[in-house]
Design goal:
It is a single chain. This protein is mainly alpha-helical and about 325 residues long. It has two domains: about 90 residues, DNA polymerase, domain 1 (Orthogonal Bundle); about 130 residues, hpI Integrase, Chain A, CATH 1.10.443. The chain has a three-stranded antiparallel β-sheet, with no helix packed on it. Helix 7 packs antiparallel against helix 9. The two termini are about 40 Å apart. The N terminus is likely disordered.
């Protein structure tokens, strides 16, 4: 069994956290939920907390990406859409309760909480759609340079939005065009080195100039760490995840993609397009920072037909006469 997985027995035996128990008590006393409803919430939250514990994530530190990955995990495990939808309701309700009670600083389900759980992963953009998106950033002012670098880097590396806004200047090594890399800190502070392609490199270098990042840099940095941030907001502080999300959504609306476009869709499109052009799935797994190859298959929607075709084309004893 892969890392992070748990058996039904493990989940059933795992006690619920104090925060989880407090939430269930609130549902019972304040909201008058029935015993069967509370039992269903308990099962879903036990599974959720066990999954978080396996990844070393505490409830107070859950990110939107963690929630999205958990939903992807449930789908990859073969859960029915209705089961996934029920689990998301439980998770969303718990995090909203923690925020209201002051046990958490943010609700990681805020941006996805009102969305219906789809029966499949978000569809990857076509290469033409990606090109249209990247060409939608017009101009050479500081904001345009920043936004261009963000979109190019998200699509060019497949990194998560939280990983992008967490980048510091020391994480970049762009001196040599053919050896440009970025150091990314993923889930659980796991470090990986990701290649940076020509277009992304040029966009980032264009941003890291006096007329780019230098324009948004303040005379005095308000917070420790902002001075090393790769991406800045209009006030000269480190760009937040919500700010970067808004940038992606704004350009998506500009080219007619609307709600289809999210940072995760760019990550998904990066991986899918690499596979379409012949990349090995384990290379894509390393690029995305997935602990399990199963997760990579879910993200990239590797079809049985594609795997079969690759197998028959490559294995000497698979070909028919």
């Amino acid at each position: 069994m892969g890392k992070g997985a748990s058996t039904p027995a493990d989940t059933a035996a795992a006690p619920l956290s104090l925060d989880g128990e407090e939430f269930l008590s609130w549902l019972s006393v304040e909201r008058g939920r029935a015993a069967n409803t509370l039992a269903a919430y308990r099962r879903d939250l036990r599974a959720y907390e066990a999954w978080l514990a396996a990844r070393g994530v505490h409830l107070a530190g859950v990110s939107e990406g963690d929630v999205a990955d958990y939903i992807a995990h449930l789908r990859a495990s073969g859960r029915a859409p209705a089961t996934v939808a029920r689990a998301l309701v439980a998770v969303r309700s718990l995090h909203r309760f923690l925020l209201d009670e002051g046990h958490s600083d943010a609700d990681p389900t805020g941006d996805i909480g009102t969305l219906k759980v789809p029966q499949g992963l978000p569809k990857a953009l076509s290469e033409d759609e990606v090109n249209s998106l990247l060409m939608a950033v017009v101009g050479e002012d500081a904001v345009a340079r920043r936004d261009r670098a963000i979109l190019e880097l998200l699509y060019g590396t497949g990194m998560r939005i939280s990983e992008l806004v967490g980048l510091s200047l020391g994480d970049l090594d762009l001196d040599e065009p053919d050896r440009a890399i970025v150091r990314v800190f993923g889930k659980g502070a796991k470090e990986r080195i990701v290649p940076v392609g020509r277009y992304a490199r040029e966009a980032v270098l264009g941003w890291l100039t006096l007329s780019g990042r230098g324009t948004l840099s303040p005379d005095r940095w308000a917070r420790r760490g902002d001075a090393e941030a790769v991406f800045l907001n209009m006030r000269g502080g480190r760009l937040s995840r919500q700010g970067a999300w808004g940038i992606v959504r704004r350009y998506g609306e500009k080219v007619g993609l609307g709600e289809r476009l999210t940072p995760h869709v760019l990550r998904h499109s990066c991986a899918t397009h690499m596979l379409d052009h012949g990349a090995d799935i384990r290379v894509v797994q390393e690029l995305l920072g997935h602990a399990s190859i199963v997760t990579t298959q879910v993200y990239t929607r590797v079809s049985a037909e594609r795997l079969r075709s690759a197998y028959e084309a490559a294995h000497p004893r698979a070909r028919r006469n």
